[in-house]
Each structure stands twice: as structure tokens, then as C-alpha cells.
Amino acid sequence: MKIAKLAFGLICLAILASNILTMSRWSEARGVYDDICYLRQAHLFQRFGAGGLDTNAVRDDDRYFEGKLKEIGFAERKDPIRWPCHNPMPGGKVVLQYPPGTGSLLALFPEGHQVVPLYIAASLIVCGLALSGIAMARTVPSVVGAGVFGALAVYLMINPAKASYSVAPTMALCAVAGFLTALWLTRDKRGVLLIALIGLLLGASVNLRLPNALLAAGYFLFLGIPFLWTRSLATFVQGLAFGAGVLVGIAPTLAAQAVNAGSALATTYGSADLIAPAFDLAILGQYLRDMQIVLIVLAIGATLSLLWSGVRHVRQAAFVVAGNLVVNLGFFLSHPIFTPYYVVPIAMLSLWTLSFARLLQPAEACEIASVRHEPATLGALPR
Predict the structure, then answer these.
(1) d(C-alpha 347, C-alpha 345), whole Å
(2) Counting Cβ atoms within 10 Å, is residue 328 exposed (0-12), middle (13-18) or buried (19+)?
(3) Which range marks the domain in which residue 234 is found?
(4) What is the pLDDT of residue 226?
(5) What are the helix (H) ranges across the chain?
(6) 3-class secondary-structure state, position 94
(7) What is the pTM of this model?
(8) Number of domains in the chain
(9) Per-residue pLDDT tens digits for 83-109
(10) What per-residue confidence (pLDDT) applies to 188?
(11) DSSP-assigned beta bridge partners for residue 95
(12) Are residues 59 and 88 in the same domain?
């Protein structure tokens, strides 16, 4: 088993090294609208600190964004109304549509060299958790499972994570949140601080992409439905702690919306991005032809497998994941695919949670599972 752990660990490290080599060659001038808009956000934070939450177009007095638009040959760069990723607000301001998280992370690195270190940092977090999972495995099948999944998770930091600067940090947050969720559910006594931290991380993910708000849905269902049934004080306290963590985590986005749109609950996105859900076989067909379907199938399959297991802690992790998958897939499968990563966050959060839940299950449960799958000896075979 040690040899298997070493082999899979080296595979993950090799993929990480290959990723870093590839990332080091990336250019921040790909000509993609989203890229330069996130870089403008980072530039505002570097200039104004927390004041960078205000993305009013008039703050481009140093012509930073205009210069970025000139680099990609954008003809109407002098007219903020025509700027990509920006929308007019009722008060007359033209503001950036994205929540502030991705720009604030990019701002941690020197201008001109922001994207590569962000991706490398996120990849190191993911690879670290993948190696931890391999080290925690106690049986050969669990080593293989943790190793294959770890290698896949590290690879995904290149594709599809390169499609948007917001995906890489989202993937890292999902990995950490998945580990903490499994840790919370596999303990006999569930700590309030731990569930509050999970809520904080999931809330913080909303600062990267607004649809990440749906990642918390399964947790609210898992905590809310039992409370309505039992009226348990312990369940209420845990639900309150989780909700408070989510609220604190999402606070930067609420503040940015208050500054830019005039209300914490008003969106900075335009009407073109606010598509009403519509269940259509054509949309389902888009997902069936997309790489994301592989992750969806893996997440659903792993969830069903753990739901059928006889281990209480593992089944509870599967219940959280099942609720999350139902809500998230119900939302995304009713919206057309514009980019190849819409369901990647929920799929990876689900897979990280289920993987660590299996790895963290009590030793007795592992022994029982091992006995169930152990082949019969020759002496036990019928004559």
C-alpha cells in the first residue's frame, strides 16, 4: 500500500509540475473581455484599497482600462456605456458587473504578474489536499480512489479552470470546504465553529461567482429540515452558525452592490445575464455533449454509492451532497451553457466531500467494508 501511495503522490506532483510549467507561459493579454475586466478590478484595489469596491467608470482617470481595451483593438473604448463587462445603473453610473473577490485576489500580486501566481497558489492548495487524501487512505481501494480523484482534481486546475480567472480560486475553496464538511460530519460531536467556518468559506466563494451562492443550499436543507421536524436547539444553533458564516463571507459582495448598484440586494449584472430558468431538452443536450457531464455522473454515482452504505457518518455526507446536487443541477440544467465550467464547482465540492467522508470514516467501518469485499479463501470454497 505504501508503494501505491507513493506512486499516486508522484503522479499528482507530476501533474502539478506540468501545470505550473504551462501556467508560467500564460499571457495576461489573451484578448478576452472577462480577463481585462478582472484585471481592472484588481487595479482599482491596488490604487484605492477597500475603496476599489467602487467600480464606477469615471475612476478610470488613469486610462488603465482604456489602455487594456486598446491592446485588444476595442474600437469604442472611449465610451464607457460600450465597455464590456460593465452595465449602467439607475443612478447613471457605469459599473463593473462582477463581484469583488477575484479582483481582490489578483490585487495581492504585482501588476503584470497576477494571473500565474493566483493559479499556482490555488493549484498548490488543491494538490496539498489531494496528497492528504492519499496519505489518509487505509486500504488499497481507498488509495486508488483517492489517487485517481486527486490526479483529476489537480489536472482540472488547467482545464477548465483556465476559462475564467474566477474558477481557480473557486476550485480551491471547494476543496477546502469539502474536506471541512467531511470532518464536521464524521465527528460524533459536531462543532459549531467548524460549521460556521464552512459557511464562511462558501459565503466567500460568492465573492468569486454569484452562482456559488447555490453551493450552500444542501447545507441549509440538511440543517433546516431536521430542525423543522425535531425543533432541536442543537440543530438550530448549528444552522444559525452556518447562516452567520455565509453572511459574513458574502459581506464584500453585498457592500460592492450597495456601492455600485445603490442597494446590497441589487445586482450589477445587466438584463442579458439574467436569464429566466427554462427546462429544455436542447439545454440538456448541451450538457451531454460537454465535459461537465463526466463530473456530474461521477458526483451522482459517488453520492448513490455512499447513500447505500451502512455507515451513518458517510451517509449523512451523502445526504448533504444529494441536496446540493438537486438544487444546483436543477438551476444550471435550466440555463444554456456559455462557458465550460458552470457545474464544475458543485461537482468538485460534492466529490471532495464524499472522498474525504469515506477516508475519514471510523476505522471499524473500514474494517467491516474490507471484510465485505474480501475474497473467499481456498479453504472456504465449496467442494
Answers:
(1) 5
(2) buried
(3) 159-269+277-365
(4) 84
(5) 2-23, 33-48, 64-71, 101-106, 115-136, 140-155, 167-185, 192-206, 217-230, 233-261, 281-288, 292-307, 312-332, 344-360, 363-373
(6) strand
(7) 0.90
(8) 3
(9) 999 999 988 899 999 999 999 999 999
(10) 73
(11) 87
(12) yes
